[in-house]
Amino acid sequence: MDRAADRKVVVLISEPALHDVEDVVSRLKQAGMAVDAVQAVLGTVTGSAPADVVAGLRAVPGVLDVELQRDLGTR
Question: Which CATH class is domain 3-68?
């Protein structure tokens, strides 16, 4: 799989699912997300996924939202 075509994402975990973040992370991985970091206290997971998988990440139980990560360039 060409990971270069992946989109960087930030996944927001719903408050009720915060008690079981590792389960949500496992489901995100099963859905096709490559997880880079988990911020359990903040309820966020960062990583990347193929563009055609990103929308499906929203259907993972415990996911509140999925946002595309914006890269800010330096000037």
Answer: alpha beta
Q: Give the domain ranges of the chain.
A: 3-68
* Per-residue CA distances from 56 to 17, 37, 38 (Å): 18, 19, 19
The number of angstroms, rounded, from the C-alpha of 67 to the middle of its chain's C-alpha atoms is 8
User: Which residues, given as ranges, of the chain have pLDDT below 70?
Assistant: 1-4, 71-75
pTM of the model: 0.86
If 0-12 CB within 10 Å is exposed, 13-18 middle and 19+ buried, where does residue 25 land?
Answer: buried
